[in-house]
């Protein structure tokens, strides 16, 4: 399917009555509503009836893909896909708007950053974008532990020396004499300062305690989830400077935010003023981002004492310093991290597609509504976060004599999201007809889309695109 046809499809309003195929996802009641996601009238390109269609960009870990049960999901690569998608799953592919079918309800990136997804535009048109924060935390934390060992013992220098001696055929002769050059110290009883106590930092703090280290740290935005993982006797400081004072090791685990600390960013946050509080033989572990460290200040620090710098990033000033070890951004490079990210992305999509719940979205509010039994019809509505929208939605429902059993309304920036459970009267054949209600809600001023989560899988999605009704 060409990009042109995809973009034309975005602007063609389509109406089709529900396919006969079954596939109830939430309620046992048969819901009469439109199927959605047809590419074009007469093209016959509907997704497999009764299944949710997931399209992938990039190669996604099979462990992640296995989270989509085959009986209710069809998963296929986006390239060459015959039918439209209900959700997209990607890693590094730079997603273009023309690749996003009118039927797409959600986009998930297997990874933390979402720079390759047009997030602002997706917010504008009401499509949640998900990521997988912390999926690679264990991989990075393990490399930090490796960094602790590399920073305390001259393992790398020793390996290089053995290679040199081996080439000269002198290894056996010289090894016992030369080992004195590579002495080190133990971690047990030393102090680690962890700056940034999120997914990675909290794990590093906990494991360092298990190695017998004393741990202190700093995080101005510490959340409850991370706080619960911290070692009980860990000391929390009120500034970076006080957290690094007296520390033998410092692990940086905060985000990079453009701008200097004075401008509210973290660029060069480890500069001369903070380094002045370092012990002369302190080891800095930077597995967060290269730009957090002011390179020339770091080089001065390394030159002036016997401190060390272990980093997962390139550094123009310190790369060949004898007291620096730089790795080629290996932190998240494990099979398990990729599996974990794909599994998390798949679970997030399922939770949204099947139940309407939102977690780990970068542009939509976290939303969770507990389930209320088989005969309840769940609908979700995405609208612009403007006054009066919620009242209009609920009065639409009330006017149709439909009872709201429970609901949740959350907002984030320009977007508001509603999940509403309805007790809908059935007709004499035991069916409910939500077609009219969905159309009325979707075409309200400010509403971007609505979904009926009960009934035929993959059906029941309607969008209000610039005043046109798309189903
Ligand atoms: N080396 C790698 O391959 C690799 C892989 C993944 C993540 N990372 C880096 O690690 C960082 C941490 O990842 P995470 O998953 O733990 O993120 P996270 O969001 O779970 O945790 C970051 C923590 O830093 C805290 N923080 C923010 N500003 C701070 C400041 N000025 N001082 C101290 N703490 C501050 C936050 O409150 C948060 O608790 C990421 O931002 C990323 O740059 C590197």
UniProtKB/TrEMBL annotation:
The EC class name is oxidoreductase
**Catalytic activity line of the entry:** (2R)-3-phosphoglycerate + NAD(+) = 3-phosphooxypyruvate + NADH + H(+)
Protein EC: 1.1.1.95
Q: In which pathway does it act?
A: Amino-acid biosynthesis; L-serine biosynthesis; L-serine from 3-phospho-D-glycerate: step 1/3
InterPro entries for the chain:
ACT-like_dom_sf, ACT_dom, D-isomer_2_OHA_DH_cat_dom, D-isomer_DH_CS, D-isomer_DH_CS1, D-isomer_DH_NAD-bd, NAD(P)-bd_dom_sf
Indicate yes or no for the key word Hydrolase.
no
Q: Report the Pfam families cross-referenced here.
A: 2-Hacid_dh, 2-Hacid_dh_C
Q: Which residues form the ACT domain?
A: 378-455
Q: Does the UniProt entry include the keyword Oxidoreductase?
A: yes
- PANTHER family hit by this protein: FORMATE DEHYDROGENASE 1, HYDROXYPYRUVATE REDUCTASE
Entry's family note: Belongs to the D-isomer specific 2-hydroxyacid dehydrogenase family.
What is the protein name for this chain?
phosphoglycerate dehydrogenase
């Amino acid at each position: 399917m060409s990009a042109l046809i995809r973009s034309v499809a975005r602007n063609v309003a389509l109406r089709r009555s529900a396919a006969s195929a079954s596939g109830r996802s939430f309620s046992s009641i048969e819901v009469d509503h439109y199927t959605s996601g047809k590419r074009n009238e007469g093209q016959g390109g509907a997704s497999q009836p009764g299944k949710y269609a997931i399209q992938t960009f990039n190669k996604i870990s099979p462990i992640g893909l296995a989270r989509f049960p085959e009986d209710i999901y069809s998963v296929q690569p986006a390239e060459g896909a015959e039918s439209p998608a209900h959700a997209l799953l990607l890693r590094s592919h730079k997603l273009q708007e023309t690749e996003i079918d009118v039927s797409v309800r959600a986009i998930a990136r297997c990874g933390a950053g979402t720079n390759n997804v047009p997030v602002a535009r997706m917010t504008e048109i009401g499509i949640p974008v998900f990521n997988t924060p912390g999926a690679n935390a264990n991989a990075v934390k393990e490399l930090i532990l490796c960094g602790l060992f590399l920073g305390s013992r001259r393992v790398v220098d020793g390996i290089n020396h053995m290679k040199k001696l081996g080439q000269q055929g002198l290894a056996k002769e010289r090894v016992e004499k030369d080992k004195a050059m590579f002495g080190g110290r133990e971690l047990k009883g030393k102090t680690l300062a962890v700056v940034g106590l999120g997914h990675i930092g909290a794990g590093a703090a906990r494991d360092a305690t298990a190695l017998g280290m004393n741990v202190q740290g700093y995080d101005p935005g510490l959340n409850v989830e991370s706080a619960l993982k911290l070692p009980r006797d860990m000391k929390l400081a009120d500034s970076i400077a006080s957290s690094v004072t007296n520390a033998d090791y410092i692990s940086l685990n905060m985000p990079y935010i453009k701008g200097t600390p004075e401008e509210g960013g973290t660029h060069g946050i480890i500069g001369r003023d903070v380094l002045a509080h370092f012990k002369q033989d302190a080891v800095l572990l930077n597995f967060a981002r290269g730009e957090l460290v002011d390179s020339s200040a770091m080089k001065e620090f390394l030159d002036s004492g016997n401190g060390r710098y272990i980093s997962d990033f390139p550094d123009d000033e310190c790369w060949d310093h004898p007291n620096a070890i730089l790795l080629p951004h290996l932190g998240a490079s494990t099979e398990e991290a990729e599996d974990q990210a794909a599994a998390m992305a798949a679970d997030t999509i399922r939770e949204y597609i099947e139940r309407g719940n939102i977690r780990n979205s970068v542009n939509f509010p976290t939303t969770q509504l507990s389930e209320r039994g088989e005969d309840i019809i769940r609908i979700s509505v995405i609208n612009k976060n403007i006054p009066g929208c919620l009242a209009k939605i609920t009065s639409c429902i009330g006017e149709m004599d439909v009872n709201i059993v429970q609901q949740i309304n959350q907002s984030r920036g320009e977007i508001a999201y509603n999940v509403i459970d309805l007790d809908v009267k059935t007709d004499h054949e035991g069916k409910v007809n939500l077609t009219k209600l969905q159309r009325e809600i979707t075409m309200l001023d400010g509403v971007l889309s609505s979904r009926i989560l009960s009934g035929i899988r993959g059906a029941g999605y309607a969008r209000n695109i610039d005043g046109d009704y798309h189903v």
